[in-house]
Amino acid sequence: MTLFQTLRQSIRWESSMAARRTASFGVPYNYAQMRYPAAPMHPALVPVVDKLDQTLGVRFNNCLLNFYETERSKMGFHADDTTDLQPGTGVAIVSLGHPRKITYRSKADQSLQRSFTLSPGSMLYMGSEIQDEWVHAIKKQKGVGPRISLTWRAFRAVESEKGK
């Protein structure tokens, strides 16, 4: 069974967002009026976080999963909040399932847009600098199949974790 199939079948997906389903593992994560409590890392994600640690030199402590089930599934333009991340880190996105395009739009000139295909098994790293100057989105895309994105963050220690 592929990682995509394992995650799709074994995760209890949060469905309160109309545009996509989500799940979170690791330290607590709050965004867009969603509150994800701490949850043990899913065993299937451990080899992924280990590989990211080897590749990027960052030990990520949260994985937010986004399940784009149909061609209508999307995420609107936004910049990720990096203020609670460990200094010098950003967001790593690992793509599973079908390819989807990510579109970047300049904050300074909204007519300036660039799109890139996120292929299955690919990893895209966005440092905090890109969040300062660009917003990004996963738009609706005709003819695509399901996709899961693993979005990894290294949050600063929360109060309950300090001193452990």
Amino- and carboxy-terminal Cα gap: 36 Å
The coarse silhouette is globular
Helix content: 10-25%
**CATH topology (fold) name:** Jelly Rolls
Could you name the key traits of this structure?
single chain, alpha+beta, four-stranded antiparallel β-sheet, 11 strands, 164 residues, Jelly Rolls, disordered C terminus, five-stranded antiparallel β-sheet
Q: Can you characterise this structure?
A:
- With 164 residues, the chain is an alpha+beta fold.
- The chain has a single domain (3-11, 23-153), classed as Sandwich (Jelly Rolls).
- The protein is 15% helix and 36% strand.
- It has three helices and eleven strands, in the order H-E-E-E-H-E-E-E-E-E-E-H-E-E.
- The protein has helices at residues 3-10, 46-56, 128-133; strands at 21-26, 29-31, 34-36, 62-68, 75-78, 91-97, 100-106, 113-118, 123-126, 134-138, 147-153.
- A hairpin with a 2-residue loop joins strand 2 and strand 3.
- The protein is globular, with a radius of gyration of 15 Å.
- The model is unreliable at 159-164 (pLDDT under 50).
Which helices and strands, and how do they pair?
Elements: H1 3-10, E1 21-26, E2 29-31, E3 34-36, H2 46-56, E4 62-68, E5 75-78, E6 91-97, E7 100-106, E8 113-118, E9 123-126, H3 128-133, E10 134-138, E11 147-153
Antiparallel strand pairs: 1-4, 2-3, 4-11, 5-10, 6-9, 6-11, 7-8, 7-10
